């Protein structure tokens, strides 16, 4: 019977993902709720519900679901990266960086965590370190658009700041 339950739960989660892809986030949330009634510690349902809430702009609720997932699996990279991105959205850059640092202790070559850390550092005005993290991300994945675009923007900002300082002196 357990196999049938898992099979039905998998179908439900796949249907919820399909709904999200079609932009039907509210209907997807209903399915995630049903899935979590069946299995309250289902890591995929917890994280995907968090992502769905994040897509709806319900960031605080999303973070709650990432935390629930991290309670089940403390080193889940997917939950950590999404929690970090949500914290970044809330302008809690230090907390976001903590999530990315946790990921990078587990997997130092996680390009997305490197780039996201660069974004949070950049938001804090730490452009030199941000640039370093974008370069690290690109050394792992040279085609990573977010890191490439961000690297270019930070280089321009640094150049502009230097130019302004030279005008003052």
Q: How are the SSEs placed, and which strands pair?
A:
Elements: H1 2-21, H2 25-38, H3 43-55, H4 59-72, H5 77-89, H6 93-106, H7 111-123, H8 127-140, H9 145-168
Helix pairs in contact: 1-2, 2-3, 3-4, 3-5, 4-5, 5-6, 5-7, 6-7, 7-8, 7-9, 8-9
Short characterization:
The chain is mainly alpha-helical. 82% of the residues lie in helices and 0% in strands.
What does this structure look like?
- This protein has 169 residues and is mainly α.
- It is 82% helix and 0% strand.
- The chain has nine helices and no strands.
- Helix 3 runs parallel beside helix 5 and helix 5 runs parallel beside helix 7.
- The termini are far apart.
- The mean pLDDT is 92.
Which key features would you list for this structure?
169 residues; mainly alpha; 9 helices
Distance between the termini: 77 Å
List SSEs in N-to-C order: HHHHHHHHH
Q: Which sheet architecture does the biggest sheet show?
A: none
Q: How helical, in percent, are the residues?
A: over 70%
Radius of gyration: 19 Å
By DSSP, the count of extended strands is 0
Shape: elongated
Please work out how many helical segments DSSP would assign. 9
What's the overall average pLDDT, rounded?
A: 92
In terms of DSSP E residues, the strand content is under 5%
Unreliable stretches covering 5 or more consecutive residues: none
Class based on secondary structure composition and strand pairing: mainly alpha
